[in-house]
Amino acid sequence: MRGVETYQGRGLIADPIHRYILYTRPDGIPGEATEQDLLDSTWMQRLRRVPQLQSARWVFPAAEHSRFQHSLGAMHLAGRFAQQLHPSLKAEFPDVPSAALIEELLRVSGLLHDIGHGPFGHFFDDNFLVDFDLTHEKVGQRIITEQLGDLVRSLRRSPSGPFEPGEAIDPEWICYLMGKGYTRPELTHPRWLAHLKPLLSGIYTADNMDYVLRDSYMCGVGVVGQIEIDRIIYYSFFSEKGLTLDRGGIQAFLMFLNARFYMYTNVYYHRTTRGIDLHLKEIFRDTVRLIFPHDLRKDIHPYLHLTEWTLLEEVARWPDTDDPEKKALGQEWRHILDRRLKWRMSHEVVLDIFEPRRGLGFMQIEEVERRVRELLPAALKDFPFKIDMAQQDPRPLNPIGMQDRAVPDLRPDARARPGAGEGAEPGARRRAPGPSDQPLVKRNCRWTTVASTTTASKHC
Question: CA 267, CA 382: separation in Å to the nearest integer?
Fold first, then answer.
């Protein structure tokens, strides 16, 4: 190969988080698809118009990045994981495909994992898609199989090199890797596929490592330097139980969990962000019902044109319409768009549970609100307020219930095991910290009382 040919069929994308992201592009090979074809598809370009942060961007003015940018970062990190992990995956499964195919499978899974997101991200799931028994992941799986399947099947190389002859990526493999509710591989799936799942929907993933880095950078929150991505990737490998982290990476892993938890408590669950969400919740369902009178279980095509841009442009016109329902909703949207906040925090309580206990859980919001109202003096019995309960487990998921997404064990180095004791078996694995013996594992519930700004000003 001549030196100039090194750059054929590949390109670089500048990125503020990862500096440069390598990707494949057409090189004149008939019938071959590349990552650029996926990037330039209408479904991926749609993500440019779906912001990464739903309400937090009204609190952190610089956080105007999109799902498209995050998807590029997830693709990049997934590829780095693949390069590190393929040798140990092949040691566990000698029939595993080429390193290039595994790299491209993970990269494309990272690229497409958010393809089904709607306006306002997870808020759209919780306040619209749930009515149809759908999630953005289920919608994304349909987009991948029905709209992008031919492109995925026609991929023939990763940035590192070509697949082996006859190798191809099955779109269903991507659907399995990205689906948090899709917990068991199909009988037709290859044996090695389940080992890859924690990299896309586990405790530390290409997804959450990119969004913690990217969101903190774009919000101006200083946790970027606290995350040692290189160290976590370097000390990750596959054992017979799945994705495994060597003890050399434990401290970096704990730092990442702390950084992610910091982002939840200071950005995603910021008091003003939660107040905006409470206001949105009052009008969101009725708004989307008018703007998008479609059933995504029957037809996916109209979804292509539903983005945050189209939604906000539409509701911005509603205050001037003659339709009474749209006019009323439009006036509420005008308050949100102009940041005239309806709810403000008046009191906050943070409760910590360090060890899960059977039969012990948090009360429902309605019960907390009822008890608080009973304790108010007679003059304030009708005072308008809401209880907002934001829960976050910084693990971030309970490993006991994660099944095929868990990191099952942490393996100390056999040559240096402080306190191993006499008779310890060299190279023995250490059990992964569980909910009762991991000091960092803390379940945080923030109980916030928010009061109407118009009424609260009279009493507070």
Answer: 32
Identify which of 58, 440, 73 has the alpha carbon closest to the alpha carbon of residue 267: 58
Distances (CA, A) of 207 to 33, 138, 214, 303, 328: 24, 17, 11, 23, 38
Token pair of 153 as six digits: 């099947």
Domain boundary assignment for the chain: 3-267, 272-393+444-459
- Quote the DSSP letter at residue 47: G
The CATH number of 272-393+444-459, from 1.20.1250, 3.40.50, 1.25.40, 3.30.310, is: 1.20.1250
| CA dist., res. 61 & res. 50, Å (int) | 16
CA distance 213 to 204: 13
pLDDT in tens, 361-393: 667 888 888 888 888 998 888 888 888 877 654
Residues 306, 291 contacting (CB under 8 angstroms): yes
DSSP string, 301-316: GGGGG--HHHHHHHHH
Measured distance CA(41)–CA(26) in Å, rounded: 14
Beta strand pairing call for 242-246 and 385-392: unpaired
Task: For residue 166, count other CB atoms closer than 10 A to its CB.
Answer: 6
- Fold matches, 3-267 and 272-393+444-459: no
Tens-digit pLDDT profile for residues 395-409: 444 444 455 555 544
Residues forming a β-bridge with 386: 450
Q: How far apart are CA 32 and CA 152, in angstroms?
A: 10
Give domain 3-267's CATH number out of 1.20.1070.10, 3.40.50.300, 1.10.3210.10, 1.10.150.290: 1.10.3210.10
